[in-house]
Structures are given as structure tokens and as C-alpha cells.
Design brief:
about 160 residues; about 40% helix; 5 strands; alpha+beta
Length: about 160
């Protein structure tokens, strides 16, 4: 039995990690994990894109890790099963959305930092203060509901059994 909660999104080579974990299972072994999906922090990703456009920044700027969709991750598991001749492996997957609300974007960013999540440095992702100020301005203006800003959590749950 291998269980993991909210850690797979940090792996740089998720496919290789999944392959190793699946191959480590004994007959009737189970791998259960949850991770965040592609729509996690959707609002922040959109605010980054809008800030890039407003500030005319041509290089990509990422607010964090890039996550998979449910189907992408399920496909990855299915490909690993086929490659390892594990044709009887059962794959169950579900996704759910949760929302959290904050007084402002800065409060949201502080909450993310408190849990240990930081900005990724994909391709030398250097972010200047002016850019962050614009992101915060856009987020506070465009993603407000009932006087609070919204943050989306796209939760993926997987159960794999040999």
C-alpha cells in the first residue's frame, strides 16, 4: 500500500515517479494519491497572463508549478500500465473543486507561502516587483466575489490496484 496526499504536484518527473511506484507494488498492491489539477489557482494563472499582456512582457512567467488534468494523469497511469504489461491494473480517478476566499490577493499569497509553496523557477522565472504589483491589482479587481477574492483548488484523487 502506497499513499500520498498533495505531494505529486511537486515532482519534476511525475511520469518516472509513477512508473517506479507502480512497479514497486506487489500483486494486489494499491497506490492511492491526491494531487492538484490544472485548474488549481486558475485565477492567479489568469492574473499572471493579464499582467504579462498589460506590461508587454513577451517571455512566459509562471506563478507556480504546472499541473495535469485528470485525463492527462489518467493517461500517464494507463501508459505506464501498458509499458509494464500490467493490463489488469484498475485505475479509478475523480476530481473535485474547492474554493477558498480571502480579503485580498496578498492574503491569498501569504496563505500559499505559509504552507510552504513558493514560486517555481522554470527556465529562470525571474519576476520583478512591478509585475507582482500588477498581478495583485488585477487579481483584486477581477476575481472578487461578495467582497472577497476567490482561489480555486482543483483536487484529483487516484486509486490504482494491481
Amino acid at each position: 500500500l502506497i499513499i500520498s496526499n498533495a505531494s505529486f504536484q511537486w515532482f519534476n518527473h511525475l511520469d518516472k515517479t509513477l512508473d517506479k511506484l507502480i512497479r514497486s507494488l506487489s500483486l494486489h498492491g494499491v497506490l492511492c494519491f491526491s494531487t492538484f489539477g490544472k485548474n488549481t489557482f486558475r485565477e492567479l494563472h489568469e492574473a499572471f497572463a493579464k499582467a504579462r499582456e498589460v506590461l508587454k512582457i513577451s517571455k512566459p512567467v509562471y506563478p507556480g508549478q504546472l499541473f495535469c488534468t485528470l485525463n492527462e494523469l489518467r493517461g500517464m497511469c494507463q501508459d505506464i500500465a501498458v509499458e509494464n504489461n500490467l493490463n489488469n491494473m484498475k485505475i479509478s480517478a475523480e476530481e473535485f473543486y474547492d474554493y477558498e476566499y480571502f480579503d485580498c490577493c496578498k492574503d491569498f499569497l501569504h496563505s500559499v507561502k505559509k504552507i510552504g509553496a513558493n514560486n517555481c523557477q522554470i527556465n529562470g522565472n525571474n519576476i520583478i516587483p512591478k509585475f507582482i504589483e500588477k498581478v495583485i491589482e488585477i487579481y483584486d479587481k477581477d476575481y472578487i466575489e461578495n467582497g472577497m477574492v476567490k482561489a480555486t483548488y482543483h483536487n484529483l484523487f487516484f486509486y490504482l490496484k494491481l
